[in-house]
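Subject: sequence -> structure tokens, single chain

Hey, anyone have a minute? Need the predicted structure for the following. Not urgent.
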Amino acid sequence: MTGLSILLVDDHPVVREGYRLLLERQPGTRVVAEAEDAAGAYRAYKLHTPDIVVMDISLPGPSGIEALRHIRQWDTHARVLVFTMHGGAAFALKAFEAGASGYVTKSSAPSELVRAVGTVARGGRALSEDITREIAADRLSSGHAVIRDLGTREVEILRLVASGETTDSIARQLNISPKTVQNYHYGIKAKIGARTDAHLVWLAIGAGLLELERAV
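Reply:
Had a minute. Here:
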């Protein structure tokens, strides 16, 4: 990896500093910008146009999936490597649907992240070993993941609704109308079989969209 510029996106400054130290040990690799949320990631990408974005999914407000989708809409050649605590196959598949070039879990060895960045830099698709196993098991399973049939925008709205965000707040964050949010909300409940909003929250937790202690 030589002459490689990277944008780091994570809401924890200490975590970003650790990634920066790790990645900048590689010859010619520079972290040119950092961001702590989806809006900041989009702005930083447009300003710096880095070679690779290393981005967490769990961000305050709109998730990394939403940031990934917006970046890819602005630049269809953007290379985004998701680096996250979420190890479920459904999350990884949604990230790839949104345009991710790779998906690595934070439980992986540091060398796994370095290897994935190199793979993405060469135009390849990177997966950590645990995610490869999860996706293989998911494909072989007869089970039906809650979010498998939802689009990326539906997944994002489900996560925000389950996090306790109001319709107006979601509309502002995603730059859509409150009526559109409501339509998505009702459609999502019908698709995943949620009887009430409380049931919706528990289904979202079960799918790994948010941690139990963050649910409202």
